[in-house]
Amino acid sequence: MNLNDFLVKVDSIKDCLGTPIDYGIKPVVARFLYLGFNTDGSCEGHKNYGCNYPWIDFCCYKNLNIDIERNVKNRLIIEKYLSNFYHRNPKLFTQSRGIYKAFRLKGNNLNHIIDMKYFSLYIMNKLNI
Questions:
Q1: How many other CB atoms are there within 10 angstroms of residue 65's CB atom?
Q2: Fewer CB near the terminus (10 Å): N or C of the chain?
């Protein structure tokens, strides 16, 4: 599958209420899926409700069980790229999500959706994709 296939796939993803992925974060989610990261939820951030910052949750599963080892590995990979992406004043960071080592990549405000887009492109560039 190529990146365009993942962009189409993301268009079909809906949450338990039938709501599709937010328009602004769709390409970022598609890039992470293409890179082999399993996303478990996302939001582009909203001014009037919910979180006022973008976020993507990552959680890996193996045979219907949560894959703690892979969650830890993926977080370390994301954090390594984050530290190289930001030499000073990082705007994106990871946050733990429970005992299964799932994690969230998030910004601090609505403007950080741009950082999410550039960060996902940065990883693809570093991996020569």
A1: 9
A2: N
Count other C-beta atoms under 10 Å from residue 12's C-beta.
8
Contact assessment for residue 45 and residue 53, using Cβ atoms and an 8 Å cutoff: yes
pTM (whole model) above 0.85: yes
Say if CB 46 and CB 107 are below 8 A apart: no
Domain boundaries, position 99: 3-126
Q: Judge contact between 123 and 83, C-beta under 8 A.
A: no
Tally of domains in the chain? 1
Cα 17 from Cα 9, distance rounded (Å): 18
- What's the pLDDT tens digit per position in 20-65? 999 999 999 999 999 999 998 999 998 888 889 999 999 988 776 8
Say if CB 91 and CB 110 are below 8 A apart: no
Sheet containing 102-106: order of strands: 39-43, 55-58, 102-106, 93-97
